[in-house]
Write a structure and sequence with these properties.
Layout lengths: L1 H18 L6 H13 L3 H25 L5 E7 L2 E2 L5 H4 L6 H14 L15 H6 L2 E7 L11 H7 L1 H20 L3 H17 L26 H13 L6 H17 L23 H16 L1 E4 L2 E5 L3 E4 L2 E4 L2 H10 L6 E7 L2 E9 L4 H16 L4 H6 L8 E4 L2 H5 L3 H9 L1 E4 H103 L5 H42 L7 H25 L5 H55 L3 H7 L5 E6 L4 H11 L5 H17 L6 E5 L5 E5 L4 H10 L1 H17 L7 E6 L4 E2 L2 H19 L1
Antiparallel strand pairs: 1-2, 1-3, 4-11, 5-9, 5-10, 6-7, 8-9, 12-15, 13-14, 15-16
Length: about 800
């Protein structure tokens, strides 16, 4: 023994030299060499084991000198991963006494070849890991990271067999003695105390609204459970766990009783799992419950015939013409329906001898059918007419026997097996549940993929909508800008016309004042001539003649002025009427108007001068005026001829355009060509609209509010028919004439009409606006006939379409149709 101790000391010194990273002196290297030589002999293997122990002791002593008051934290490590702390009785040991403990742990771990309970962990140890020596002891202080790992774990496997067996027996015996010291009253007290603490709220069970936690499990292993799962957990620890102590089982039994009594279990149809019954668990019917659970697990693993089928045996038969005859399947089915088993079909089995006395009962393929099938079997078992009774009893009498078809029936070589193999297949309940679960998961996956696709499409549509909105806003801004520019141009033209008219009026006023002055002067001269009447009759006649000529000239001037005013007003009206159609002729018309005014003015001046004295200057001036007048008249004739030619050409062009528009409308209406027929099948932007037709949608919506669902369609059609007759009635004219800002007559709808007011009060604004829209269209497009007419319409922009838009649309569709044909 002393020899072995000496060998252990030498091995410890050698290991110490090895732990000093190669050794710094020759003596350490020599001792390490001797230790390696001793390792070749079997008896010296124990020396290496002891060397490891003394090496650990040596480090512990060094650690105790540097930290004499430090406590040690011992942890078992599996594959260098820390596990649960050891009991507090071991944690408080001084480092210098730990080498004995280290030796015992190494010996126990190296010897273990089966599942046992580790005295440090109180948990099952994996025998494969224990046999390979992967368990090691780490010793560390609170303020130091010093760790000692067991080396030469493979050598531990061979050197301590006898010592390990002794320690294992001692450990297990000590633990069993310790557990037997706990009396039954102590366990009941522990259970009662934990139950009262759960009731008082000392231990918190509820983690959230729907999840719970076990208050007696370690913090690291605490997980959230649903209430049923927590109940199963408590039942499993209190009944099944082999590694849990009796106190832990008592605590979990108290938790199970608290859940059953004080927490609301919505569904009590599923009892907690009961796999094994222990003698410490109280209750009279535990064995029966455990047997029932084993039957349930056995049923889940049994092979049934799918779709669910039952077997009826010992059916009463009679002999008729050397053939057995029995009850029909429909009669048997009705009897089973009355008992509440809900079979789908009942097939009596016939052979060459006739009715075999057996029948196959088919149930639904779902779980309800399985429930009916099991109820069918249990009802016969309760009457002692099940499958076992059928094969046991010899004198069956006229009783019916029944059971659910299983594997042995399916594989039998009689008429029952042939029918079952032909109509069904063998599957377990677990397989069917797995199939349903897989189908549900596949359905959820497909729905998830579909949802993702739909979300992607929605995002693409949203982006396209945003792009379209941006482009539409740009178009609206451009339209507003063009409209603003157009209005500005019209305003400038109106201001120029007004300035020109005011200028002509001012000139006219000046000429009138000048003539008035001349008249006054002539009157004064008349007075002078009258005074000189006695002196010179000829002078009187001359003055009277001048007065007459002046009066005629004034009359002519007034007539010329009236003509000029009428002409100006006529030109203004013509200009307002033709402004939108012949904008390109405005300059020519302005020139023409100016020439006509100049000609009239010159003619008036010429007429005035004809009635005045014929002196040379006046004659010259009259000649010049006549020449200018001839030139202006010639220029006016040229402009008039050009204007007339343009007007004729425009009228001819307008007639041609109207004919083309009518022809395009006829083509759209009759769908003569195949391209236009296909055109109507898609969403179109240019098409035919019946101007003056009533929109039926507002009438339908109003009828829904006012009438019942059965009367909606009838009342809608009746109301539309009444108002279509009112719109066609020429005697009803709900229009009135007003004067606009330019003093022009304008015809608008009289909203105070009795029929319209009654319609608005009874059916609302939407129906009223629909009738107003129809009235406006009829008054605009066909005021004389008062019936709808066809016209080109831009459905996208909600306006009348131009001929150009219609032609471009038809050409575009024709190209698409032609491309498809080729």
């Amino acid at each position: 023994m002393l020899y072995l101790v000496a060998m252990g000391l030498i091995g410890g010194i050698a290991s110490g030299g090895e732990g000093a990273r190669g050794g710094r002196d020759a003596f350490a290297q020599v001792v390490a060499l001797l230790g390696s030589l001793m390792a070749t002999m079997e008896w010296w293997l124990l020396g290496f084991q002891l060397s490891n122990v003394f090496y650990d002791m040596r480090l512990n002593l060094m650690f105790s000198r540097s930290m004499p008051d430090a406590k040690l934290d011992l942890r078992i490590k599996v594959n260098n991963k820390p596990s649960v702390k050891p009991p507090s009785s071991i944690v408080g040991l001084k480092p210098r006494f730990l080498f004995f403990f280290s030796f015992f742990c190494r010996a126990v771990v190296s010897q273990t070849h089966r599942q046992l309970t580790d005295p440090l962990l109180e948990e099952p140890v994996n025998p494969s890991l224990a046999a390979c020596g992967f368990y090691s002891l780490s010793v560390s202080g609170f303020n130091s990271k010093t760790t000692v790992y067991s080396r030469n774990a493979s050598i531990n496997k061979f050197c301590c067999k006898s010592l390990a067996g002794m320690i294992i027996r001692y450990t297990m015996t000590h633990r069993s003695i310790k557990e037997t010291k706990i009396s039954k009253s102590d366990l009941e007290d522990c259970e009662y105390r934990c139950y009262e603490e759960l009731k008082n709220g000392t231990f918190k069970v509820k983690a959230s609204n729907s999840t719970y936690r076990c208050p007696f499990c370690p913090e690291k292993s605490k997980t959230n459970y649903f209430l049923k799962e927590l109940l199963r957990h408590a039942a499993r620890i209190s009944r099944e766990s082999k590694s849990s102590s009796l106190k832990e089982k008592a605590r979990h039994f108290a938790l199970e009783r608290y859940i059953k009594r004080h927490l609301d279990l919505k569904d009590r149809s599923e009892p907690p799992p009961k796999i094994e019954c222990h003698e410490h668990v109280r209750g009279r019917d535990r064995d029966r419950d455990c047997e029932h659970d084993r039957d349930r697990e056995h049923d889940r693993d049994q092979l049934f015939v799918v779709p669910w089928m039952g077997i009826l045996a010992n059916i009463k038969t009679t002999l008729d013409d050397d053939r057995h005859v029995g009850e029909s399947g429909s009669k048997l089915r009705n009897e089973l329906m009355r008992e509440g088993f809900n079979p789908v079909k009942v097939h009596p089995l016939w052979s060459w001898k006739g009715h075999s006395g057996f029948a196959i009962v088919e149930f639904n393929k779902d779980w309800a059918g399985f429930k009916n099938a099991m109820s069918f079997e249990k009802s016969f078992e309760v009457k002692h007419c099940g499958k076992r009774d059928y094969y046991v009893e010899k004198n069956r009498g006229e009783k019916l026997f029944g059971w659910v078809a299983r594997e042995d029936d399916y594989k039998s070589m009689d008429i029952i097996g042939d029918h079952l193999r032909k109509k069904g297949d063998l599957k377990t309940v677990s397989d069917l549940e797995a199939d349903d679960k897989r189908k549900n998961e596949k359905l959820v996956s497909n729905l998830t993929d579909t949802l993702g696709t739909k979300e992607q499409c929605l995002k693409e549509i949203a982006s396209k909508f945003i792009e379209t909105s941006v482009s539409l806003n740009k178009l609206v801004e451009q339209k507003d800008e063009m409209l603003k520019h157009y209005n500005e141009e019209i305003r400038k033209m109106q201001e120029e016309g007004r300035d020109h008219f005011e200028k002509i009026l001012l000139q006219h006023n000046e000429a009138t004042l000048h003539l008035e002055d001349q008249r006054k002067e002539l009157e004064q001269q008349e007075k002078l001539l009258r005074q000189r009447e006695a002196q010179n009759d000829s002078e009187i006649r001359r003055l009277s003649r001048e007065k007459e000529m002046n009066a005629r000239a004034t009359l002519e001037q007034k007539k010329a002025d009236e003509k000029m005013l009428k002409l100006a007003e006529e030109q203004k009206r013509q200009k307002e009427k033709l402004r939108k159609k012949i904008i390109r002729l405005e300059k020519q018309l302005d020139t023409k108007q100016a020439l006509e005014l100049e000609v009239e003015r010159m003619r008036g001046a010429l007429q005035v001068m004809k009635h005045m004295d014929e002196d040379m200057e006046i004659k010259k001036k009259m000649d010049e005026i006549e020449e200018n007048l001839k030139e202006k008249i010639e220029e006016l004739d040229g402009v008039e001829a050009l204007n007339q030619a343009l007007i004729v050409k425009e009228r001819k062009t307008n007639d041609e355009l109207q004919e083309a528009r009518k022809e395009l409308i006829n083509k759209f209406n009759t769908h003569a060509s195949q391209g236009l027929e296909e055109l109507q099948t898609r969403n179109i932007t240019i098409g035919i609209k019946r101007m003056g037709d009533l929109d039926i949608k507002p009438f339908h919506a109003a009828s829904k509010i006012k009438y019942t669902s059965e009367e909606v369609e009838e009342k809608t059609l009746e109301l539309c028919s009444i108002w279509e007759d009112n719109l066609r009635d020429p005697s009803w004219h709900p229009f009135k004439v007003i004067m606009d800002k330019d003093c022009n007559a304008k015809e608008i709808i009289n909203e105070e009409d009795e029929k319209l007011k009654h319609l608005k009060d009874e059916f609302g604004d939407e129906v009223f606006n629909a009738v107003l829209t129809s009235l406006k269209e009829l008054n605009e497009y066909n005021p004389s006939g008062r019936y709808p007419i066809l016209d080109l319409w831009n459905f996208k922009e909600g306006r009348k379409a131009s001929l150009k838009e219609g032609i471009l649309f038809v050409l575009k569709q024709w190209k698409v149709y032609k491309r498809k044909r080729h």
